[in-house]
Design brief:
Helix content: 10-25%
Mean pLDDT: 75
Strand order of the largest sheet: 2-3-8-5-6
Structural class: alpha+beta
Number of helices: 2
Radius of gyration: 24 Å
Largest sheet: 5 strands, antiparallel
Order of helices and strands: EEEEEEEEHHEE
Oligomer: single chain
Low-confidence stretches: none
Number of strands: 10
Length: 187
């Protein structure tokens, strides 16, 4: 039903079901993780009116789990990217995993997903530093990168002394440089 992805690691799709409505993923070597992606696999949707709150848990200095609410996933929002690097020193919040005896080792953090009513999800407040990334901000980032690269390329082409010749092709090799053009002859 769910998947979990950390950069540089294999995708996890086999969540450990710890209750009828609760699932966890283990995150070994959690100290090196900055972001985690939680997503629905698309095979089983949430029942009507339900969604999943997403929690991050890491062991405190006594080895006890500290759970923090990151956000949620729903049928209408089937994936989310969460920044967890700043959460390891924060304080825990109320969570539905408290009374459960979930097996863990000291160097392993966990992502927990609790299936709940959408009305209840709307009333929850995720920890502020989890900074859910949205598709809109990623799209905006991509557009800005493309625009900047394109403008840089055009400036290089316009600023260079180019003599049109059908047997030569000009490619910008340095941006903003007066002599940033390389000439390639067709052979």
């Amino acid at each position: 039903m769910f998947g979990c992805l950390v950069a540089g690691r294999l995708v996890q799709t086999a969540a450990q079901q710890v209750a009828e409505d609760k699932f966890v993923f283990d995150l070994p070597d959690y100290e090196s993780i900055n972001h985690v992606v939680v997503f629905m696999l698309g095979t089983i949707p949430f029942p009507e009116g339900m969604g999943g709150s997403v929690y991050f848990s890491y062991p405190d200095s006594n080895g006890m789990p500290v759970w923090q609410l990151l956000g949620f996933v729903t049928n209408g929002k089937p994936s989310a990217i969460f920044k967890i690097s700043g959460l390891k020193s924060g304080e825990g919040s109320q969570h539905p995993f408290g009374a459960m005896n979930i097996v863990r080792t000291p160097s392993v953090a966990q992502i927990g997903i609790s299936v709940e009513l959408l009305d209840s999800l709307a009333q929850q407040t995720p920890v502020g530093s989890a900074a859910v990334s949205s598709v809109d901000s990623f799209t905006q980032f991509t557009q800005r990168c493309w625009t900047t690269s394109t403008i840089c390329f055009i400036i290089c082409c316009v600023s260079a002394q180019m003599t049109p010749s059908p047997s030569e092709m000009f490619i910008a090799s340095k941006c903003g440089s007066e002599n940033g053009m390389k000439t390639f002859k067709d052979d």
